[in-house]
Amino acid sequence: MPNLTVQNLFDRQVKVAPGQTLLQAIQAEGIDWMHACGAKGRCTTCRIIVQEGLEHFGPLTDSEQRYRERGRLQANERLTCQCTLVSGDAQGRVPRQTMLPHMKYSN
């Protein structure tokens, strides 16, 4: 089962089951993660900055492609409510703009 390491959450490890979105896996681990639109791919608040392992993600969804075309989702960013981790491991970071005030983050 692929693993996601969230670097600025003290290298927290998240197991991502087949077909599970990153947001579902993150929430299953009890981690709070910003997702203003309710995980419908209508905003970019749930995005993750992928530091390593981008090649292990599934293809961009229509929502992700639309935001990429509008310049609101960079090449190294994915929407956690939309994307899956299909093979291998990945590392990412919570963007500063979407950090939750009640969460403690590391460098």
From TrEMBL:
Its cofactor is [2Fe-2S] cluster. It comes from the Bacteria. GO terms for biological process: P450-containing electron transport chain. InterPro entries: 2Fe-2S_ferredoxin-like_sf, 2Fe-2S_ferredoxin-type, Adrenodoxin-like, Beta-grasp_dom_sf. CDD domains: fer2. Signal peptide: none annotated. The keyword rRNA-binding does not apply. Keywords: 2Fe-2S, Iron, Iron-sulfur, Metal-binding. The keyword Ribonucleoprotein does not apply. Residues 2-98 form the 2Fe-2S ferredoxin-type domain. Coiled coil: none annotated. GO terms for molecular function: 2 iron, 2 sulfur cluster binding; electron transfer activity; metal ion binding. Belongs to the adrenodoxin/putidaredoxin family. This is Ferredoxin, 2Fe-2S. It comes from Pontibacter lucknowensis.
